[in-house]
Design brief:
- The chain has 92 residues and is α+β, with helices and mostly antiparallel strands.
- The chain is 11% helix and 25% strand.
- The chain contains one helix and five strands, in the order E-E-E-H-E-E.
- It is globular.
């Protein structure tokens, strides 16, 4: 699995050093969704999504990068995204 940044409005993948590409094979692999989201926020890349690319579009997962008006909503040491973290349920 590769972890990419995707701009769905433009149909482009983040490449490196603020360049974009239409080729998924040329896209930068961030390794983790947290690292990709943090990178996007630190560079003001609003409206992008983290793409978990499994090599088959049927299985790919897109995660919206949260935007913040007062700095980053994602921190390098956080458990982003909290709303998608599985919660334990107990049988009762």
């Amino acid at each position: 699995m590769r972890v990419l940044l995707w701009d769905g409005r433009k149909g482009l993948y983040y490449r490196a050093t603020d360049t974009w590409t239409v080729e998924v094979s040329d896209a930068e692999d961030f390794g983790t969704s947290l690292r990709a989201a943090y990178y996007a926020q630190q560079r003001g890349l609003g409206g992008v999504e983290v793409l978990l690319d499994f090599g088959d579009a049927e299985y790919n997962v897109y995660l919206r990068v949260p935007e913040s008006e007062n700095g980053s909503a994602v921190h390098e040491d956080s458990a982003w995204p909290a709303e998608t973290t599985p919660t334990a349920q107990t049988a009762g």
